[in-house]
Amino acid sequence: MRLNLPFLALAALQAASAMALDPPAEVPNDPAEALQELEALGEAAYLEVTAELEEPASKRLRKRTGGSCTLSKLRVRREWGSLTSSQKTAYINAVKCLQSKSALTPSELAPGAKTRFDDFVATHINQTLHIHYTGNFHAWHRYYVWIYETALRTECGYTGAQPYWDWAKTAITGLANSPIFDGSATSFSGDGAFIPDKPNLELGGGLGLPPLVLPPGSGGGCVTSGPFVDMVVNLGPVSLDLPGGLVGVNPDGPLAWNPRCLKRDLTDAINQRFANATSVLKNIVLPSTAEVFNTMMEGVPGSGEMGVHGGGHYAMGGDPGRDVFVSPGDPVFYLHHAAVDRVWWLWQLLSPSTRMQGASSVAGTRTMMNMPPSDPTTIEDYVDLGFAGGVPTKIKDLLKTTGGPLCYVYL
Ligand SMILES: *[C@@H]1O[C@H](CO)[C@@H](O)[C@H](O)[C@H]1NC(C)=O
Ligand SMILES: *[C@@H]1O[C@H](CO)[C@@H](O)[C@H](O)[C@H]1NC(C)=O
Ligand SMILES: [Cu+2]
């Protein structure tokens, strides 16, 4: 057995280096050119990862190391606009199915968690201060979206993969014209009802930092059409950013029941400024360490930047979209976080030996912005999704999307 170990290590290294993706030579400032580069990179990544799954040599390696992701099990996550109408309807129906099933979370723990969909929201609220601006941010949300996608499949008969929101595309088309937010039967419902004369958003001023000022969007009220027009948001708000620097909080507590409509405030200016094709490509190509990658993705409060992650959240806006605790209460959250995960996946593929394995693949501590101060995250730390589902899983088993419990790629 001992004799085999160096061979295994060598084979793993060879597999890792054979898989490295080439970055584009430059990051164009022109949105259309940057989008082209991004799509070329995405296609190359898809081809490399699926080719690796086909190789008989790596099949042997997978057997020895216990991996079980095969081409036949692979879930191919696609951009929402590329799905057919019936694929879109199947996904939306599965989400509505989760929203119609009873919660597994005991009501003593979270009285506001009424449905299986809410189990995910309650878990996210409960752990928010330990999963954002922390070293586990990417691995936690990767597993979270995977378990949500799995629940849609195993509990609601969905047979497809988790779709994603390509912000680079909506930055060009406008949100309200996009297949995600056009308000049609195959969208996630569209904008909220228009509320006039909204002041700007002012974010982060509470920390004593210069606030980030963002323009108001084109909605603000309850969504007016589409599949989620009658959806009931049960949990929150916990820390909802509202126009004029106000923050919405449910005084009954973070997990109390507070039934209300789904609101949106689509804001193209935020999408275009923070999550255009150039910003996405820069986040993939420029960072050489996990620390820089995380900082670019989430932004630094007070710096005037919120990253593509913040850009997507604040561009959809509304309630619970602009609440860091309750944001998974808007079904578009999962398309947004699949897109965040796709950026991480592409960045990882540029250097799998340092970004998809080992200590250098994570950076940060176990508390939000290290407040209060905490120990560094390690790849031995567990991601535990509580009543949402799954088994507690180490970060090191979540670094590769075609290994450990995971089996998916993006196209
Ligand atoms: C919140 O987290 C604590 C500590 O991990 C856990 O015991 C509790 O069950 C969680 N509550 C919910 C609603 O998930
Ligand atoms: C697009 O993103 C880049 C990088 O984040 C940013 O510098 C630029 O201002 C953005 N473009 C627009 C039109 O806001
Ligand atoms: Cu989150």
TrEMBL record:
PROSITE patterns: TYROSINASE_2. It holds the Pfam family Tyrosinase. InterPro entries: Di-copper_centre_dom_sf, Tyrosinase/Hemocyanin, Tyrosinase_Cu-bd. It comes from the Eukaryota. Residues 330-341 form the Tyrosinase copper-binding domain. Keywords: Metal-binding, Signal. Residues 1-20 form the signal peptide. PANTHER family: TYROSINASE, TYROSINASE FAMILY MEMBER. This is Tyrosinase copper-binding domain-containing protein. It comes from Humicola insolens (Soft-rot fungus).
